[in-house]
Write a structure and sequence with these properties.
binds zinc ion; single chain; 5 strands; 4% strand; 2 domains; 66% helix; 15 helices; globular; mainly alpha; two-stranded antiparallel sheet
Amino acid sequence: MRVLRGGVVALAVVAALVPMPAALIERWYSNTLYPPMQRLLTSLTNLLPFAFFDILIVAASVAVVVIAAGAVGAVRRQRRAAPALAALGTLATAVATVYLLFLLMWGLNYRRVPIADRFEAAGDSLSRQAVLQLGLEAAARVNDLHDAAHADPMAGDEWRAAPLRNAFAETERLIGDPARITPGRLKTTLAGPYFRWASVDGMVNPLGLEVLVNPDLLPFERPFVAAHEWAHLAGHADESEANFIGWLTCVRGGAAAAYSGWMFLHWQISAEVGPDDRATLGKALSDGAREDVNAVVARLRRDQWPALQTAGWAVYDQYLKANRVDNGIRSYSAVITLLLRTRFAADWVPVRRAPFTRE
Ligand SMILES: [Zn+2]
């Protein structure tokens, strides 16, 4: 038993540290083993109206308390440290097992080939002017779409909405993913208050391949968050890639989704340009669109707990770095680089490089 436990912990350490060639991960894990597993697991967790994640968290908490209480009792009775060491061994084995499951069920996707390699590069277009131009286009699209998006919102049923599901499948085809995945139901969780305080929009539960979202998202924010999280479900672990795929999905997903996607891009670009350009981008919004932006700002300010937010994002930064995303949370803004460095045909169809153009 002790040998087995030691083996599990050693295997986890090896899996964490040993380099794995991205091409092998891409071919055998992300494109072969992962997609059928995703379709099965997400179909199953979609049946549950609540988050499977919550069951896992409650069960894990109870198990830790039971093991710790048992060890404390045994140490008192036997007046020796051995039971405490045994309990620590059990916990270490459990952590190692969960880590290995995490890697097998989703986490290896962090080690795949970057999506940018699939597309032809647009010339040198990462200038301040190009970024501002894209932001102004986002403002114009948001203004055009505002009324239609508000007249026909998705009403919280994103995972069943045919326009968004079809747009996601079309996007997967356009970017050259070999397999279609199952879109996930958007679920609230017991961790909802944490999402609220830390300003997290959503996440994927890697041990159930289900989508968990902030309960306070406004209706026009949800289609983009859904498509972003579905990109994670499709094995695109990287944040900038999930934003890229989420945006590509939204622009072809009907008015409500397109509004959501262009709103995201306007927000993202506004957050990254200098004060002058930010003012220009703000002025470019119509009154209706500006009201929506202000509603998001109010939502974020209402419940934010800045200390927790800082701590939460610092933990996530460490988590990303532990999963070999070297620039941590800064990879978020890489979506703008990805958008401007990719060559697009009409209607925002990314132009794939030769090896990926074969179907
Ligand atoms: Zn994400």
